[in-house]
Amino acid sequence: MGKRVVGIVVSALVVVAALGVVVGRQWGSVSTPSTSAKTTTTLGAATQPETAVWPFASTVTRFGDPVLAAQAFATAYLGFVNPMMGAFEQGDSHSGEVLVRATPTGPVTTIMVGQLTPANSWWVLGASCPDIIVTAPSSSERISSPVVVQGRSTAYEAVVNVEMLQDGTLAPLKSDTVMGGSMGVKGPFKKSILFASPSSRAGALSFRTISPKDGHVIEASVIRVTFVK
After folding, report:
1. For the domain bounded by 132-227, which CATH number is listed?
2. What is the gyration radius of the CA atoms in the chain, in angstroms?
3. Max Cα–Cα distance, the chain, nearest Å
4. Given its phi and psi angles, is residue 134 left (phi above 0), alpha (psi -120 to 50 degrees) or beta?
C-alpha cells in the first residue's frame, strides 16, 4: 500500500505541474480545454466544500475545466494509469459528468463534477460504475467507525478493494476488501469496516476493481461521507 500511495502522490504532482495539459488519452467527441480553462493554482480555502471529494481545499490546485478535474481525480485519487477521458456531459448549469475508461473496451466509470466556490472552479463530487453499486452508506451520510458498507458488485474473483479516505490526504484511514459476485454476475456484499480516527470532518469511501493482468484500476465508485466527531 505504501508504494501505491507514493505512486498516486507522484501522479498528482505531475498533473499539477502540467498546469492544464491533458496527459490522458481521449475518446469520442472531446472538447479541448481553452487557455482560459486550464488548471489554476490560486491558494484554496481552508475548508473543503461540503460535497466535494477532490481537489483538496488545503492545496493550491484548482481546475477551470471539468475534464481536467476528472482526469486528475482518476489518476491521483483513484489510481487509473493513463486513462481514456470522455467529453464533459452537461447536467445543469453548474454540474455534469465525465466518463473515463482504463482501456478502449473497458467498463465506464462516471465521474460527477460540479462548479463550486471559491472562484467557481470545478470539483469532483463522486464517481460510479455499473459493476459496483453501493447502497450503504448513502452519499454525504454521517458515519463513524465501524461503518457497514453494502451493495452489489461483480469483479475478478469477486474482490472489490475498499478504502476509507479523509480530506487533505491520499493516505487511507483503512484499506479492506469486500466480496460480491464475479464473472459478470453481480452478487451482494456487506461488511463492517473499522477505520482509524479521522482528523478531517469529511472524506470518501472508494470502491475499486483491479485488473488481474497488470494490477491497474479497472473501474471505481466513490461515495462522499462525513464523520461523526
Report:
1. 2.60.40.10
2. 17
3. 47
4. beta
Mapped onto helix, strand or coil, the DSSP state of residue 201 is coil
Instruction: Give me the phi and psi of 51, to 5 degrees please.
Output: -100, 0
Is residue 121 within 8 A of residue 102, CB to CB? The reply is no
Residues of the chain with CATH 2.60.40.10: 132-227
Residue pLDDT tens, the chain, 229 long: 444 443 443 344 333 333 333 333 444 433 334 333 445 444 444 689 999 999 999 999 999 999 999 999 999 999 999 999 999 999 999 999 999 999 999 999 999 999 998 668 999 999 999 999 999 999 999 999 999 999 999 999 999 999 999 999 999 999 999 999 999 999 999 999 999 999 999 999 999 999 999 999 999 999 999 999 8
**What is the Cα–Cα distance from 190 to 151, expressed in whole angstroms?**
7
Which CA distances in Å does 129 have to 34, 99, 138, 172, 223?
29, 10, 15, 21, 12
Q: What are the cell numbers at 36?
A: 482560459
Distance CA 116, CA 139 (A): 18
